Amino acid sequence: MKQNNVPVITIDGPSGAGKGTICQMLANRLGWHLLDSGVLYRVLACEALRQQVSLQDAQAVAKLAQNVNIRFVSKDARELARVYLNNADVTDEVRAEATGKLASKISAFPEVRKVLLELQQNFRQMPGLVADGRDMGTVVFVDAAAKVYLTASPETRVKRRRTQLLAQGIDAKLSSLTDELAARDARDSDRAISPMKPADDAITVDTTGLSIEAVFDRVWQIVQHRVDHQGD
Ligand code: C5P
C-alpha cells in the first residue's frame, strides 16, 4: 500500500489555541491515529539536556534526534498520552513551559527538522492520521485531505495554557506565561525554516470565546466538507 493513500487531517496553530484537545476528539471520533508533533521537539530538548548536549549545537542535537526512542502510551484513547523517552516516563517534564521554550529553540535548526520530518511521516498509518503542530499542513503532510489552522487571542491562549499547566499540577504566573508564549510565538513565526503559518489551503478558525464543543463542531464540518469534496 502506498503511504500517501492514508488520509491525514492537519491542525496547526499557536500554543493555547485548542489544537491538542480538538485533535484528540477528532482522532477518537474517526478512530484514527494521533500525532502530537510538538512532543517530539519537546522530548528532544529533554534528551539534549540529559545528555549534556549544547542546545546551540544544531549538528549534535540532530544526531541525537536520529537515535531518540520516543513512545506515546495511552490506556484510554480519551486521555492525553503519557510520553516515554528511552523507557522513562518524562510526561511532566515534557509538558512544562520551560521545555516548550527549549523545544522552540531547537526547532529552528534545519538539521533537526530534517530528521524529525521522516519520523513524523512514519506516523501516517491506516486508517488515518490527525496531525497536530505548526507545519503539518505546510511541510509535513502537504497533501492532507483537510487542513485547519486554529488560533485565538493572546489573552485567551495564555489563560488556556495556564489551565492546562494547573491540571498537571504546575503553577505558572499569568504575567510570565504571557511573556513566554509571546516569545515562543515570535520565534516560531519568524524562523527561516517551516515558520508557523496557515497553509494556503487551510481554513482558519478563531476559537476566542468559543467552547470546546463549538470549536469541535466547526472543525468537524470543515473536515466532512473537505473529505466529501476531495479532488474537486
Ligand atoms: O505544540 P507544542 O507547544 O508542544 O510545541 C513546542 C514547540 O515545538 C513549539 O513552540 C515549536 O517551536 C515546536 N514545534 C515545531 N513544529 C511543530 C510542532 C512544534 O516547530 N510541528
**Secondary-structure content class:** alpha/beta
Strand neighbour order, sheet with most strands = 2-6-1-7-8
Q: If you consult CATH, what is the topology?
A: Rossmann fold
Strand content is 5-15%
Coarse shape:
globular
Q: Ligands bound here?
A: cytidine-5'-monophosphate
**Secondary-structure element series:** EHEHHEEEHHHEHEHHEH
N- to C-terminal distance = 24 Å
Radius of gyration using CA atoms only: 17 Å
Helix content: 40-55%
The description of the largest β-sheet is:
5 strands, parallel
The number of helical segments is 10
Low-confidence stretches: none
Mean pLDDT: 93
Text of the CATH class: Alpha Beta
The overall number of domains is 1
What is the correct CATH architecture?
3-Layer(aba) Sandwich
User: What is the assigned CATH homologous superfamily?
Assistant: P-loop containing nucleotide triphosphate hydrolases
How many strands in all? 8
Q: Can you give a write-up of this model?
A:
This protein is α/β, with parallel strands linked by helices and 232 residues long. Helices cover 50% and strands 15% of the residues. The strands form two sheets. A five-stranded parallel beta sheet has the order 2-6-1-7-8. A three-stranded antiparallel beta sheet has the order 3-4-5. Helix 3 runs parallel beside helix 6. Cytidine-5'-monophosphate (C5P) binds next to helix 2, helix 5 and helix 9.
